[in-house]
Design a protein that fits this description.
Layout (H helix, E strand, L loop, with lengths): L1 H7 L8 H21 L2 H7 L1 E5 L7 H15 L4 E6 L3 H13 L4 E4 L1 H14 L4 H16 L3
Parallel strand pairs: 1-2, 2-3
């Protein structure tokens, strides 16, 4: 929103914090719920894969509570798989989900694993061809529409 206001130029009033927290946030929440609801029939017919990226929350118990609420909202029998961040707290959450829901499996994000491998390769300061190749592999994996 700020970027758009900058492109338009001076004289565009940015919303105040209380406006964002109030009306705008409520409108966005309503719009997002409607968007998510448009997929519910697909969940019932095809199942669902949940993806959880890392954020500011570090406490595994709290993350488990949040993910468990999402599982309950979607319906555990509709979730086919959960893909999570590679951080240890998220791995703990994946294990807790598997214990609570025997039909749900989790795995770490492959693209993130590849990025970590590339970072390690870059530290070697040598094999440029390997780095280029690994980068192309990562792009292929993350851009694949399958």
């Amino acid at each position: 929103m700020i970027d758009a206001a900058q492109r338009v130029g001076q004289g565009v009033r940015l919303p105040k914090v209380r406006e964002i927290k109030g009306v705008l946030l409520k409108e966005e929440l309503i719009e997002m719920k409607a968007y998510v609801d448009s997929f519910r029939d697909d969940w019932h017919n095809n199942g669902c894969i949940m993806m959880c990226d890392s954020g500011v929350v570090k406490d595994a118990q709290y993350l488990f509570k949040l993910m468990d609420e999402l599982v309950q909202e979607v319906g555990p029998h509709y979730i086919v798989h959960i893909i999570i961040d590679n951080a240890s707290n998220y791995k703990s959450v994946g294990k807790m989900i598997e214990v609570k829901y025997e039909s749900i499996y989790w795995s770490s994000c492959v693209a993130q694993c590849m990025n970590l491998v590339i970072e390690d390769l870059c530290k070697l300061k040598g094999p440029r061809q390997a780095i280029t190749f690994a980068s192309k592999v990562t792009t292929f994996i993350t851009m694949d529409d399958c």
